[in-house]
Amino acid sequence: MKFIMDKKIPLHIAFIMDGNGRWAKNKNMPRNYGHEAGAKTVEKVIKKARELGVKYITLFAFSTENWSRPQREIDSLMKLLSKTLARYNKDSKKNNTRLIISGRREKLPENILKDIDNVVESTKNNTAITVNLALNYGARQEITDAIKKLVSQGKKEITEQDISACMYQPGIPDPDLIIRTSGEKRISNFLLWQSAYSEFYFTPVLWPDFDGAELEKAVTEFQARIRRYGGI
Q1: Which end of the chain is more exposed for a tag (fewer CB within 10 A), N or C?
Q2: Whole-angstrom distance, CA of residue 122 vs CA of residue 20
Q3: Which of 18, 20, 132, 176 is the catalytic position?
Q4: What is the distance between the alpha carbons of residues 5 and 157, in angstroms, rounded to a whole number?
C-alpha cells in the first residue's frame, strides 16, 4: 500500500499512547524516562498530523484508572504534564494549534487545572488543528456523566443525539481512526460512545518510537479500508 496525500485523510485520529514504561525498561531506564520520551513523541505526532491535514486528534494522556499507579509516578506525570503544557502554550500561536480537554476535573491538582485553563483560553482561536487531551478520562464515566446531566435536566425520553450532545466535547466529530501502540489490542475504556464506527489500527511499535512515518503508515492502511456504516 502507498500513502496518497490527496486521498481520504481522517478528520479525527485518536491515540492510545501505550508503551512508555516498556520502552524505558528495554533501555534499563526508569519509567519516567519513557514518559519524557513519550511527551516528545506527542509533539512529533501533532506536527505530522497537522501536515497531513488532520483537523482533530485525541490523546489518551491519563485515565481514571491511572490513579492506582504509585504516587511517585503520578507526581512525576503531573510535573511532566505541567512542563508540557507550558511549552505547548509558548508554541501554540506559531503552530496555530488549539487545545481542549476531555475528562473530570476533580482529583487533578490545582496547578494543573490552572495550567489547563490558561492554555485552553490562549489557544481557543487557533484553527490549524485541535488537540483534545483526554485527562482523568474514562469512557464509562463520560457516559455516566452525560446521563446524569440529562436526568438533571428532567429528560424523560433520551435519544442518542441527546447523549452525544452531553459528551465532554460534543463539538468535535467522532474519531475516524483510533491508533493503539505497543501491541495491545483493546480499547481500555476509551471513547466507547464515539468509537462506534471508528477504524482501529494496532501496532507493536512502542509509543516513544511512534513517529511521523508510523502515523503515515497507519493513515495509509486507513485509506485502503472501505467504511460501509452498516450498509452494503
Answers
A1: C
A2: 29
A3: 18
A4: 44
Catalytic, out of 32, 66, 89, 118: 66
Decide if 125 is catalytic.
no
Give the whole-angstrom CA distance, residue 42 versus residue 126. Answer: 18
Largest CA distance in the chain: 57
Rounded to two decimals, the pTM is 0.94
Is residue 128 within 8 Å of residue 50, measured between CB atoms?
yes
Q: Name residue, grid cell 491519563.
A: 62
- Grid cell for residue 153: 435536566
Chain centroid, CA 64 distance in Å? 14
| Grid cell listed for 164 | 452525544
Q: What is the mean pLDDT of each run of 10 residues along the chain (232 residues)?
A: 70 97 96 95 95 97 95 94 89 88 95 95 95 98 97 93 97 97 97 97 98 96 87 72
Q: Catalytic: 18?
A: yes
**Exposed/middle/buried for 185, CB within 10 Å: 0-12, 13-18, 19+?**
exposed
